[in-house]
Design a protein that fits this description.
Structural class: mainly alpha
Order of helices and strands: HHHEEHHHHHHHHHH
Helix content: over 70%
Number of strands: 2
Strand content: under 5%
Distance between the termini: 136 Å
Length: about 425
């Protein structure tokens, strides 16, 4: 398209004067472009309307990309590389089409007027909105300051509350310690009162030889004294402990004295004597395992005194051919024990088992001495007979006392022979 120079310059000037209309496209996009043109200062005309036409660069590539994302458009006027000369040549490709240039220009002028009104209205609205936004921002800042003040007050109150709670907890802890100590003191005083009373009653029961009652009191006193193990050095506690120890020694001496009188008499104990001895056994139980072992050992020594005398290795019955008589003697002892003393001693003492173990120990020593004396002159038949009777006796005793032995080992542990 080639136009006369004057005509071409007129068209070029007109197209350039109206290029804002084509560039605007949409209201929001036009405002952005106008703002960018004011701040960027990069929109420059570079060249004239002659030759290849002016080349206009209005925005940076980053801004153009942002505009395309915010307001997508297919209008050629919104293209970053828009060229007015090329666009006018497309609208008026030949000289005949210039006849409608005035009409087209008037239409563009009307559109520019409408756009100017819209731009002015939008700018006014934006100004009002900016003022309202500033007010809202100031209100928000004031609200944030008020909220900050409230948070600070709440934090201060929380710190004061925490301090108050710590003080209350400290007071409560002190009161709890006081309550605990007071409870322990009251409990200790009650136990001390019980200990004093029980010790006085134990003294009376010991003097009257009322063994059953004394045994119960001795158990109680022993348990009460266990609570005062940590009170060593307190005069009253030490006096009571010493008094209980003296009463225990007195009871032990009285019990053994009563059993010694039993060994000196002939026949079975009388019913009244049996009742007293039953109480004496309860006292021995209360005195502890050591006293119980001592009592069983004393009873065993009493029972085996005749056996040791009759079957000593140098006596008439102390020969190897009299071995069967030894076992017969022990069987007779067990029958006598079952008839006379089995109800006297508590079952937990296992006195019958202790007697059998002592018999085996004594007989073992006797037979070792007899075999040592008869070395080189032993009669095989006599030795075989003695061995046979020994095996029979062992089987018999195992059948009788195996369960009792297991019960003693499981129930009493390592208390010893007499303590089971």
């Amino acid at each position: 398209f080639q136009a006369p120079p004057a005509r071409a310059r007129a068209l070029c000037a007109r197209s350039l004067s109206t290029s804002l209309v084509f560039v605007a496209g949409e209201e929001g996009r036009l405002l952005v472009r106008l703002a960018a043109r004011n701040t960027d200062g990069a929109a420059r005309r570079q060249g004239g309307c002659g030759g290849g036409g002016p080349s206009i660069r209005m925005y940076s590539p980053a801004l153009e990309a942002a505009l395309r994302d915010v307001v997508p458009s297919t209008d050629p006027l919104d293209a970053p590389d828009f060229n007015p000369i090329s666009h006018i040549n497309k609208l008026f490709p030949n000289e005949e089409s210039l006849g409608r240039a005035d009409t087209f220009s008037a239409e563009l002028q009307d559109q520019m007027t409408v756009l100017d009104e819209e731009i002015l209205q939008t700018v006014r609205q934006q100004t009002s909105a900016g003022s309202s936004a500033r007010k809202d921002l100031e209100g928000g800042k004031a609200a944030m300051r008020e909220l900050f003040d409230k948070v600070r007050d709440i934090k201060a109150k929380a710190e004061r509350s925490q301090t108050m709670v710590h003080e209350i907890c400290r007071d409560i802890k002190s009161l709890d310690y006081a309550k605990r100590h007071l409870t322990l003191t009251i409990t200790a005083l009650k136990r001390l009162q019980m200990l004093v009373t029980a010790t006085e009653q134990l003294s009376v029961m010991t003097r009257e030889r009322m063994y059953a009652e004394a045994a119960n009191l001795l158990h109680a006193v022993t348990q009460l004294l266990a609570h005062f193990e940590g009170y060593a050095g307190i005069r009253k506690i030490d006096e009571l402990r010493a008094q209980v120890g003296e009463l225990s020694d007195t009871l032990r001496a009285q019990v053994f004295d009563d059993f010694n009188r039993l060994s000196a008499q002939e026949g079975a104990p009388q019913p009244s004597q049996t009742e007293t001895l039953l109480g004496a056994c309860a006292v021995v139980d209360a005195l502890g395992p050591a006293a119980r072992r001592e009592m069983v050992a004393w009873f065993s020594s009493w029972q085996f005194a005749p056996y040791k005398h009759a079957f000593q290795p140098y006596g008439d019955a102390g020969s190897l051919d009299k071995t069967e008589l030894r076992y017969g003697w022990h069987r007779q002892l067990l029958r006598q024990f079952d008839e006379t003393f089995v109800t006297l001693f508590p079952h937990a003492w296992h006195v019958g088992l202790s007697l059998t173990l002592d018999f085996c120990s004594i007989t073992n020593k006797h037979l070792e001495e007899i075999l040592d004396q008869a070395r080189g002159s032993l009669d095989v038949a006599v030795l075989t007979h003695a061995l046979q009777k020994t095996v029979e006796f062992e089987k018999e005793m195992h059948a009788r006392f195996s369960a009792e032995a297991r019960d003693r080992e499981g129930g009493e542990g390592g208390e010893g022979e007499g303590g089971g």
